[in-house]
Write a structure and sequence with these properties.
Blueprint (H helix, E strand, L loop, with lengths): L1 H8 L15 H19 L2 H41 L11
Length: about 100
């Protein structure tokens, strides 16, 4: 357990730096989005391209914020599950009859 705490302290645990696996469904979706973005950008004038860039940047910020919030919520749920597992309350059951 101490190793995980030390890794966390020293910044060695960085789950968001994982790479997308080659050939995965996610890789396919990312490529499809990039292809659509490139085709759309070709059809726009400079002002439209600027608006597209702003839209994409804003969507990245939204996605990043949502990922962070979902991570925190999931982590809290995991801690609550662990805390409940440590509880000695067995509800209607007892060790002695």
């Amino acid at each position: 357990m101490r190793k995980i705490l030390e890794d966390l302290y020293f910044g060695n645990i960085v789950p968001y730096e994982k790479r997308i696996a080659a050939g995965s469904e996610l890789r396919h979706l990312v490529k499809r989005a990039a292809d659509c973005e490139a085709r759309l950008a070709e059809q726009l004038n400079d002002r439209g391209k600027q608006t597209l860039d702003t839209l994409i940047g804003t969507q990245h910020e939204i996605d990043s914020t949502m990922a962070r919030e979902y991570f925190i919520l999931g982590f809290r749920l995991g801690v609550r599950l662990m805390a409940e597992c440590m509880d000695e309350d067995d509800g209607e059951l007892t060790d002695r009859g």
